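Entry type: protein chain
Record version: 2
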Amino acid sequence: MIQKDRINILSDKAVDGGSYVLYWMQSSARAHYNHALEYGIRNANRLKKPLLVYFGLTESFPEANQRHYHFLLEGLRETQLELKKKNINMVVQHLEPGKGAIKLAEEASLVVTDRGYLPLQRQWRQEVAEEIECPLIQVESDVVVPVETASPKEEYMAGTIRRKIQKEWENFLVPLKMGKPQKSSLDFRFDSLNLDDVDKILANLKIEDGVEVVDWIQGGNLQARNHLKYFMENKLDHFGDLRNDPTQNYLSNMSPYLHFGQISPLYIALQVIQTGSPGAESYLEELVIRRELSMNFVFYDSDYDNFNCLPDWAQKTLLEHARDPREYEYTVEELETAQTHDPYWNAAQKEMVHQGKMHGYMRMYWGKKILEWTRNPMQAYHVALYLNNKYELDGRDPNGYTGVAWCFGKHDRAWKEREIFGKVRYMNDRGLRRKFRIDQYVERIENLLS
């Protein structure tokens, strides 16, 4: 079922001729459980046309580097093969996404696209809507509850959006029926990248190559579903109790796949609910409530990537304490290379640099300490985003922007006032030692790197 709230007409021009229906795939980069793809298939069959899929590989996406592109390309390679099994031709071009979509739309009866939430992604779609001569329909498939259905405004915190999402989610927690085009598009010939050689494509892209590719996780929907299956069978039951313990690996590893659109959050939610596990409620809180709060944040707040996004009380208290003396003050280079006095922070930074992922609880501690050890809160905010976006596989993501903002008071309340932090929530190493056998975390990270 594709609910009407997922569908948005970006251009209502008339359907007139055309050789195919075009699905411009840019955010939901998968062949499995993809509402935009299924909408394209259904309309191709209705119009008795084949379906063509297009992905534009731009090297100019802000802050994306070799690590990100490698994971993306692994997923695209799999998606292309899976679509071929459905007799769907997937064209991947080294081109600004909108330019390729506009060119291919010249022979299209209808263009379908998925949804992105960052300003650049929204700009791409708006530019295409203004240029093409056929309809452009956007279908939202990377959230459970569509953003504007969940709330018409920016929400203050998880508590305010939770009841709104829960009020709606029964209408959207519905399995998606997957179909197949009646006509093949495999005979169409277009210039397209050969995705069999990911390394060659990377070499031809003008991107930063100083961040090494990770080898413990691979891109693609099949890999994502394997990780999910393992998580549900071995970790979900204890997720509620152990998810915050960095010495225990009870996380699902879904965030990179969700970031690149390689797995459907609806599919994950339905699979988790079906288990009847005692950890399901806690996991859905993270997957749906917290994740979709982040979508709400970047969609409605134009300052999502800077200090000005913080609530007034947080900005005021941090600025009042901006000149407080710091016992430790580190440069960006010292932070990036994990050269601080704190072995727990250093371990977290090393995990992110070498694994492309940091334990969620340690990411909170990590961000708080950057605030404490940097000259002023504005600089600290910039540094935290820089490091997060450079090294995290799911960097440059609504979740990442929200996670950094939370460390500075976003989606939180005022706490007891103290130096440097003001009324922003404080975390320290004594708390880590009190709650966890945190030295085991340090040892585990060192073993990974040895």
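Comment: The longest strand covers residues 51-56.
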